[in-house]
Amino acid sequence: MLQYAQKDIAIEMSSKINVYTRNQKKVEEIKRLLPAVELVSCDLEVEEIQSLDPVEVAVAKAKQAYEKSQKQAGIIEDVSLNINYLNGLPGTYIDAFMKTLGNDGILKILRGAKDRGAEALIIVVYTDEKGDMHIFDGRVKGRISDKVLGEGFGWDPIFIPEGDDQTFAQMTPEQKDKFSMRAIAFRKLGLWLQGLDG
């Protein structure tokens, strides 16, 4: 069963919730954002379907993780980066862009671009032990920097969120948590797990 999180959904929380990612820096962020939840990092391989629909991609990953984990409660996410100059690309294909081009390659494509606007989007899927999936999203508008700034994972060194002049990579963890799409989505999840969403 798939549903966007709603206030009246009752949930029986497990003592532990798996986080499915191979990126330990992401795990550190998530643990910081959900301090009241006991999270277990799981290095579980899932295939990513080819689709420009971020919800479809995230749900497909969540279904695989649920089955491979022997139906344990878990969290999985999918991140998109939509760049105006590229008509919304790379979107859900950002990982492929990063592996092929890296930040320097993306900046090269945008060289001379007048519109460097972008939107960072995350879809977080929490699957409970019954297999019901609950979706939380986080969106942050910003722009792509002219050069790589700071040291961070993924495209953090080239994304500057609205309201600041630093890239995610230049920020302290506390600063990043004020702006990031991951912080927005996981705060929604944390409140929902506590039954406090509004």
CATH class identity: Alpha Beta
Radius of gyration: 17 Å
Low-confidence stretches: 1-14
Can you write the helix and strand succession as a string?
EEHEHEEHHEEEHH
Assigned CATH architecture: Alpha-Beta Complex
N→C terminal distance: 22 Å
How much helical structure, as a percent, in the residues? 25-40%
**Beta-strand proportion:** 15-25%
CATH topology: Maf protein
Q: Which structural category fits the helices and strands? A: alpha/beta
- Biggest sheet descriptor: 8 strands, mixed
- Summed up, the helix count is 6
What is the overall silhouette?
A: globular
The number of E-state strands comes to: 8
Mean pLDDT level: 90
Summarize the structure.
The protein is an alpha/beta fold and 198 residues long. The protein has six helices and eight strands; from the N terminus they run E-E-H-E-H-E-E-H-H-E-E-E-H-H.
List the helices and strands and how they pair.
Layout: E1 2-4, E2 17-20, H1 24-33, E3 39-42, H2 54-68, E4 74-83, E5 90-91, H3 94-100, H4 102-109, E6 117-127, E7 133-144, E8 159-161, H5 173-179, H6 181-193
Helix pairs in contact: 3-4, 5-6
Explained architecture:
The protein is α/β, with parallel strands linked by helices. It has one domain: Alpha-Beta Complex (Maf protein). Helices cover 30% and strands 25% of the residues. Strands 1, 2, 3, 4, 5, 6, 7 and 8 form an 8-stranded mixed beta sheet that branches. Helix 3 (94-100) packs across helix 4 (102-109) and helix 5 crosses helix 6. The longest helix is centred in the first third of the chain and has 15 residues, at 54-68. The model is unreliable at 1-14 (pLDDT under 50).
